[in-house]
Amino acid sequence: MVLDPKSLLVEKKHLHTPPLSEIADYLNEGLKSNFQDVKVDVVDCPDLTQQPFTLADKGLNGDPKLVEVGGPPFLLPLVQKDKVYDVKDIAKLAHSDPAFVIGAGAGPHPYIGKNCEGVYNLKITNGTIEQHTRISKVVEGSDKPVQEILPNTESRVALLANFFVSEGKPGKVLKVSARKRIGADDFIASIRKTLISAYPEQLVGLGGAFLLKEGKAKQHVMPDFSKTPLNSDDDVNNWLNFYNMSAPLVAVGTLVNGDGGLDLRVQHFHSFSHHGEAGHYHIDTTPDLVEYLGYFNVGAEIYRIDKPNITHAFGRD
């Protein structure tokens, strides 16, 4: 079962879309406080269907937008299991067809049989799914989570999601290379904080994919739903399973430089791999070794779908 899309409140807001060259200039300066080596350029997007990214479509252009569905209040303090959506419906609500959808969300627990992480990576054309989405789940009795690829027949997302949606067309994108972390911020936070400084009065959103080329990253995988209320970040962190996952990791998601009055999650990236590891990205754990390569585009608008009526600020790291 999924929620009837007609029942979902949809809010839309235009985003500020600075020239990519302007954003690149800001990032080239701003990221230097967090990484020893930084290079940001505007380039033609490489074919993201190829190694090492292996995404469902080639590019990040063609009506690019950010979409946020639900939110942590549907998971915490206690789960609302009825909050299950079909990504095909979400794409229609965002007026996207064809739709190349990448991002981070809670996986389809009705299909998997338990709570899980979703690393969303799919293409929708005239209602037909080309599914490359992975889920990551905790297996009792094992010290490692398990990654699975969803079939074309499964296109649901539960509880919360942050998607970058485009037509998957080639075009200009930001190429962000960073190596050797010298600051306290993770890769995405360093980009986001630069955009906060650069555009303090305007809402700017980026989406795309990055590769953790070298090093390891702290990532979490949610266990099955908590039966006792989780009322703080400490409660959440004690419930989550944290892992040190190895490169190469391919992460997908979105970031925004503010809340926009829409109760937005300001950054959310999940990663998958071809060696079995997948989860919610927090930060690299090997700052001296780490190397990132990201491709991002700016969203022209954001769709906020089924925003929780009662909200809170925890469970968003």
From TrEMBL:
This is DUF1907 domain-containing protein. Its main location: nucleus. CDD domains: DUF1907. One of its GO terms (cellular component) is nucleus. It comes from the Eukaryota. Keywords: Hydrolase, Metal-binding, Nucleus, Zinc. GO terms for molecular function: hydrolase activity, acting on ester bonds; zinc ion binding. Residues 26-305 form the DUF1907 domain. It comes from Brassicogethes aeneus (Rape pollen beetle). The lineage of its organism: Eukaryota, Metazoa, Ecdysozoa, Arthropoda, Hexapoda. Monomer. It is found in: Nucleus.
